[in-house]
Structure formats: structure tokens, C-alpha cells
């Protein structure tokens, strides 16, 4: 066995296999002699109302985040690539737009907690503009919390998509646009018939990667709301963490982790097949 | 084939080197290296913890201490994982919230036996908490949670006397609250990610009442109903800083430090930080008001010490604990951490000369030190459940009776399993 395979086996395959095994045992780790319980943990998990809510919210969080990442990333990338901005301004905006990606999750959350604090700057500005008449509790209001957390996640994550798409846009030959213009194609036709088809492989690849990353997003949600209030921002990641480190139900946490793993693996499989097809 | 063998041998050698580096014994003669996992170094002033360990090493030749320092929540998470895999550090800083679960996992050792072997008299300790007659944790320090009050805000609102009953507090809260200036009476952080403080429970405990009876939940009592109704009244009255459901402990302290809260229920350890951050703030310390006056209980937390069951150097680990619990060292530690010593003979140095600390020591000494959640199974989860139920109550999604029933049901499930 080659050393590479040995390291991969120890670092990746063994932990993943252990989580699968743990998910079929009674409360492993906490019990000295856990018993085999088959799919009982999975049945309990899917019977749990909060887990089902977390599943739905994970889907909302992930799909909304990826969609907005793509839209904002593409918009900014096109703006930076348009040639409408002077060279210096384009360089400046490139730095400004990439800033959110430079910060760690904890800095991002602290920053937005300060801004969105009920006594913070955002509420002050909204009050000054007469858009609100009482302090909005962005994180503490159960009907606003998920949207707020998605907003922060979108802000923190779009630069990666922007940079990837900018690289793709710079690779599209200018001749195509010139030819289309001579043929009388407007900006809409050029966007849908040249830009999107040319960018499609990159768009698909970054969308799938972003989907997997957002599916597993934990630090931003945990630091901002901890899955609360009243489970309004609970996702599979926070639910799993609570099972393991608050309730000490490691077998159930493993089962929950396996669910997340399976969904991620399906998307990863599509990604690999897509990459293979390109090659 | 030959290259493959060489590569495999190289990987094996590297693994052996890594494993040798992980060993507690550094191989230089008879020196024993103790791993000490704690959050104390992060919270104490720079160099204090290492300085203490250096002194211990000087006085105990042949023992070295390797400090593994992380913030509190990271320490707890690491310990849970390490306990599961039998890789807990030789000495672990723990508290009442984690001691039950660690002993339940068989991860921490019987300290009663080690005390006997070393001829240590448990009477030297302020409290010797036991689970089923066995000591698993020694409390090095106790932290009291009195009521801080901003004297300037109270004066400006015409509150001349400090409230001693809930009714008086209600009046004072109404007088100081002024949302147009962002001033509120107090903060009630009831988040679910790190339910650390005692902002809600202190009101019940100060009135001499408890959530448990003989370690079993006892929520369905008129006293608990009154307590929940009081909290609901404070929230509905608008006296609590907005954002309570996700507010963090640190944000609560910042609100008080910035002069936006008139009251704060917090650890004495905050005094120095508040003074440094806002030297102009005039504040004092008192008891948390009781339902009908005469406060009798003060919330408390602890910094405790335990020894890992998997440690190969339990005797040496106990020597370090005994040294930290000795009269002088414990006083010094208490002074640095602004806590109260775990050694019954120690007196913290900060009490002398500072009127605020003297007042706090008076409040602490005249009250019963309440640590109701300590030593309970899944204490963190129980605290989280309390906060979830309070959010539901304050949000208007549950009545007081429903909240009592919900708490009783969940806590009974956890505590009867434990």
C-alpha cells in the first residue's frame, strides 16, 4: 500500500467509516458497551420535529445563499470586467469587493452583530430615514433571524464566486462580442448567447462547490444565533453539534452527520462527473 | 519494491517520532510532564498562569507542567471529545457544569482516594462536592454574581434607595428606562449557544427559592410561577435591552459599561474590566433584590480541578492540585482571578482597601452561595432548555403554566436518566 493511500485511509476513510458505524449503535462514547440498534437512530431522527425543521431550513439557507452568491458574484464580476471603470477604480473596487472573504467567520459575525444590534448603526439609519418606528431585533426576532443569517452568509461568501467568474469572463474571446455586435445583437442577446454559455462550466462548478460548503455552514450560524431563537435558524450542522456537545448523544449526532454526508456526497458526485465530462 | 519499502519505513519512522513527541514522559531522566488543560491562562493576566507553574516546577523537581490553554467553551468541547477517546490531559480544569458527565464517562478519577493517599484533609476545602460519596472535582475558586448598579443613572432617574424587593426593582426599572436614549434597566441574555450567566435564575435564588428539590426538578410551584411572571413583566414592560434572545454575556457587560444599563447581574471578575473600559462610570454592588426583601441566595460558579482516569501520573497531578489549593497560592490565584478561594483559610488580596470589593465580599459572606446546576448531568443542555422556554414565554408563545410544565417535563427526562 502506498504511503499516500495509507495517509488517506487513516485521515479520511477511517473517521467516515467510524461515524457510519457509530450511527448504528446505542449511545456510543457515553455507554461503555454500546449495542447495535440498526436504523433506530435514523428513525428517531426523522421522527424529531426539530430535525425536520432543521432539514427544511438547511435547504432554504443553502439554496438562497448559493443563488444570491451567483447573482451578486456574476454582477460584480461583470462590472469589474466591463471596462467602464477606469483602471485605478477597478483595482480599488476589486479590493473592496473581496474584503468580506478575507475576514474569518468570527470577525464577520462580530461586525454584523455590532451593525445590526437593536441599538446599532443600521437601526439608527433606518429610524433616521423613517423606514422603521421601533428597534428591529434582527437576530432575536424568530421571523427575521434566518433571513439575517442568510444575509451575513451571502455577504461573506460572494467574493469567491466573483473572483472565479471574473477569471472566466477574462477568458472569453473579445472577437465573439465584436462579431455579435456586428450582427446587431443587443446586450441582452450577448449576455444570454455568449457570456452565459461561455461561463456555464465555471458557473456549474462553483455552484456545486458553494452548495456543498453552504450545506455544511456552521460557524456563522452558531456564532450569530446558535440555531435560535426558538430553532428559527437551526440547520443540520447546528443540530448535530447540539446533539454531540450539549446532549452528549454521539450516536444520534453521527446519524445526523451521516444524513448531511449523504446529501453532500450526492452533490460531490455530480461535481466529479461534471469535471470528468469536461476533461 | 525497494523504493516502496523505503517510503513505508520513512512514514513509519515519522509516525514514531510524532508519537514520541506526544508522550507525557519526555525521556530526559525521571522528569514527568503533566498536561494541564484549562481556560484559566486565557482569562488571567498574561504570564500569571505560567508564572505559577514555573514556581511549582521549582518547588517540585522532576515535574514539568505543559499548559494547554483555550477559551472556556473550546476547552469544554475538547474535553468532551478527549474523554470519549481516553486522551484527556492529566489535569483538567472543569466546573460543576461538566463534572457529572465526565465522571459518568469514566474519564475523571476518584480524588477521594488520592486525597487519602496523600494525607490531605478535605476540611481544608470551602466545599467538598461529591457524587455518590466520591469527590471528582476540587473547587479552586468560587465566583459570586452580585447586582451591579449604575449610580449616575439611578440618581438621574430619582431612585435614591437601592431596590431590595421585586416591586421596588420594578419601579426603579420603569424610572430609569428611556428607549429614546437607548437606556434600559438591565439585560437578560438568554441565548442558546452559550448559556453562561445567571441573569434569570438569580431572582429566584435571591428569594430563597430553587428550581430543584433533592436534585429533581420542582418547577410547578407558586414560587416559580411568581418568578416567571416577574421576568415576563420586566420584558413586557420594555425594561430589558432589546435583542435578549441572542444576546451574549459579553454584550450584556458592554451595555452596562457603556452606561446604557442601570443594573447588571454579573461575576465580580467584571469589576476591573468595567473600570478599565470606562473609568468615568460610577457604579456599586449589592444583592439581587428578593421577592419580598431580605435576599438570601447569590448565584455562583466555580473553577474546579480534576484528574484524568487515563493519566499515568495521577500522584504527580494531585501534587499540583494540592499546591494550587495551598493557602498562599490559592489566595494569590483568587486575587488574580477576582474570585473567592477554595481553601477555607485563604483570603483574597483584592478585598483589602477597595471599598467595592469589600462590599462584594460582604454580600458574598452574608448570602448562601447557590450553585444549583452544578454536578447535574447535561447541565449545559438543561441551561439551554431553560433559555428556550424563557424565550417561548417572553415571546408570548407559552403561558407561565405551560412554561412550568414544559421545564418540569424536560428536566425530569434528563435528570431521571442521569
From TrEMBL, chain A:
GO process annotations (BP): transmembrane transport
Keywords assigned by UniProt, alphabetized: Cell membrane, Membrane, Transmembrane, Transmembrane helix, Transport
SUPFAM superfamilies given in the database record: MetI-like
Domain of life: Bacteria
Places the protein is found: Cell membrane
GO cellular component, one term: plasma membrane
Family note: Belongs to the binding-protein-dependent transport system permease family.
InterPro entries assigned to the protein according to its UniProt record, in alphabetical order: ABC_transporter_permease, MetI-like, MetI-like_sf
UniProt-recorded name of the protein: Maltose transport system permease protein MalF
Chief localisation class: membrane
PROSITE patterns: ABC_TM1
Membrane topology: Multi-pass membrane protein
Sequence intervals crossing the membrane: 5-25, 59-80, 92-115, 144-169, 190-213, 250-272
Annotated Pfam families: BPD_transp_1
Record carries keyword Isomerase: no
Keyword match Transmembrane helix: yes
Domain ABC transmembrane type-1: 55-271
From TrEMBL, chain B:
Any Pfam family the entry gives: SBP_bac_1
Signal peptide stretch: 1-20
Domain of life where this protein originates: Bacteria
TM region positions: none
Keywords of the record: Signal
Designated name of the protein: Sugar ABC transporter substrate-binding protein
Originating organism: Occultella glacieicola
Amino acid at each position: 500500500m502506498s504511503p499516500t493511500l495509507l495517509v488517506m485511509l487513516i485521515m479520511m476513510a477511517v473517521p467516515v467509516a467510524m461515524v457510519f458505524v457509530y450511527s448504528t449503535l446505542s449511545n456510543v462514547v457515553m455507554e461503555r458497551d454500546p449495542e447495535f440498534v440498526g436504523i433506530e437512530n435514523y428513525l428517531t431522527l426523522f421522527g424529531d420535529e426539530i430535525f425536520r425543521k432543521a432539514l427544511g431550513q438547511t435547504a432554504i439557507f443553502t439554496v438562497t445563499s448559493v443563488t444570491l452568491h451567483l447573482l451578486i458574484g456574476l454582477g460584480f464580476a461583470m462590472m469589474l470586467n466591463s471596462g467602464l471603470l477606469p483602471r485605478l477604480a477597478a483595482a480599488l473596487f476589486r479590493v473592496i469587493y473581496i474584503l468580506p472573504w478575507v475576514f474569518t467567520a468570527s470577525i464577520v459575525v462580530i461586525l454584523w452583530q455590532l451593525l445590526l444590534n437593536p441599538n446599532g448603526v443600521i437601526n439608527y439609519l433606518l429610524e433616521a430615514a423613517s423606514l422603521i418606528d421601533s428597534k428591529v431585533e434582527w437576530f432575536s426576532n424568530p421571523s427575521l433571524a434566518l433571513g439575517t443569517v442568510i444575509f451575513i452568509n451571502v455577504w461573506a461568501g460572494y467574493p469567491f464566486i466573483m473572483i472565479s467568474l471574473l477569471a472566466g469572463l477574462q477568458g472569453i474571446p473579445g472577437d465573439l462580442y465584436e462579431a455579435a455586435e456586428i450582427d446587431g445583437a443587443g446586450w441582452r442577446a450577448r449576455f444570454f448567447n455568449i457570456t452565459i454559455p461561455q461561463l456555464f462550466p465555471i458557473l456549474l462548478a462553483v455552484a456545486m462547490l458553494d452548495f456543498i460548503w453552504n450545506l455544511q455552514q456552521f460557524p456563522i450560524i452558531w456564532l450569530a444565533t446558535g440555531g435560535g431563537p426558538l430553532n428559527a435558524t437551526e440547520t443540520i450542522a447546528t443540530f448535530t453539534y447540539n446533539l454531540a456537545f450539549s446532549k452528549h448523544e454521539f450516536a444520534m449526532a453521527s446519524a445526523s452527520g451521516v444524513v448531511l454526508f449523504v446529501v453532500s456526497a450526492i452533490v460531490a458526485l455530480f461535481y466529479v462527473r461534471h469535471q470528468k465530462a469536461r476533461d | 519494491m525497494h523504493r516502496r519499502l523505503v517510503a513505508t519505513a520513512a512514514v513509519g519512522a515519522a509516525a514514531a517520532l510524532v508519537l514520541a513527541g506526544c508522550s507525557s514522559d519526555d525521556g530526559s531522566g525521571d522528569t514527568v510532564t503533566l498536561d494541564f488543560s484549562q481556560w484559566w491562562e486565557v482569562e488571567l493576566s498574561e504570564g500569571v498562569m505560567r508564572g505559577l507553574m514555573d514556581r511549582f516546577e521549582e518547588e517540585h523537581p522532576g515535574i514539568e507542567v505543559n499548559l494547554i490553554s483555550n477559551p472556556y467553551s473550546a476547552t469544554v468541547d475538547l474535553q468532551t471529545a478527549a474523554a470519549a477517546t481516553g486522551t484527556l490531559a492529566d489535569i483538567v480544569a472543569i466546573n460543576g457544569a461538566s463534572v457529572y458527565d465526565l465522571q459518568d464517562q469514566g474519564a475523571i478519577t476518584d480524588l477521594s482516594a488520592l486525597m487519602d493517599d496523600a494525607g490531605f484533609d478535605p476540611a481544608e476545602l470551602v466545599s467538598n462536592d461529591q457524587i455518590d460519596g466520591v469527590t471528582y472535582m476540587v473547587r479552586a475558586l468560587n465566583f459570586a454574581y452580585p447586582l451591579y448598579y449604575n449610580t449616575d443613572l439611578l440618581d438621574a432617574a430619582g431612585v435614591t434607595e437601592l431596590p431590595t424587593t421585586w416591586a421596588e426593582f420594578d419601579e426603579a426599572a420603569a424610572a430609569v428606562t428611556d428607549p429614546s436614549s437607548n437606556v434600559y434597566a438591565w439585560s437578560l441574555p438568554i441565548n442558546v449557544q452559550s448559556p453562561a450567566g445567571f441573569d434569570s435564575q438569580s431572582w429566584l435564588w435571591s428569594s430563597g427559592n430553587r428550581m430543584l428539590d433533592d436534585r429533581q426538578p420542582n418547577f410547578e410551584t407558586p414560587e416559580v410561577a411568581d418568578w416567571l411572571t416577574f421576568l415576563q413583566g420586566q420584558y413586557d414592560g420594555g425594561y430589558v435591552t432589546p435583542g435578549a434572545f441572542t444576546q451574549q454575556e459579553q454584550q450584556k457587560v458592554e451595555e452596562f459599561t457603556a452606561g446604557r444599563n442601570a443594573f447588571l447581574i454579573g461575576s465580580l471578575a467584571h469589576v476591573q474590566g468595567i473600570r478599565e473600559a470606562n473609568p468615568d462610570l460610577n457604579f456599586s454592588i449589592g444583592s439581587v433584590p428578593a421577592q419580598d426583601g431580605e435576599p438570601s441566595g447569590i448565584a455562583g460558579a466555580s473553577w474546579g480541578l480534576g484528574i484524568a482516569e487515563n493519566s499515568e501520573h495521577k500522584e504527580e497531578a494531585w501534587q499540583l492540585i494540592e499546591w494550587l489549593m495551598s493557602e498562599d497560592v490559592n489566595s494569590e490565584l483568587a486575587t488574580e482571578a477576582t474570585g473567592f478561594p477554595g481553601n477555607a483559610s485563604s483570603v483574597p488580596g483584592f478585598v483589602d482597601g477597595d471599598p467595592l470589593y469589600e462590599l462584594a465580599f460582604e454580600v458574598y459572606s452574608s448570602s448562601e452561595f447557590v450553585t444549583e446546576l452544578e454536578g447535574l448531568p447535561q447541565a449545559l443542555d438543561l441551561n439551554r432548555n431553560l433559555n428556550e422556554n424563557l424565550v417561548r414565554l417572553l415571546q408570548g408563545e407559552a403561558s407561565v403554566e405551560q412554561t412550568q410544565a414544559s421545564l418540569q417535563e424536560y428536566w425530569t427526562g434528563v435528570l431521571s436518566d442521569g
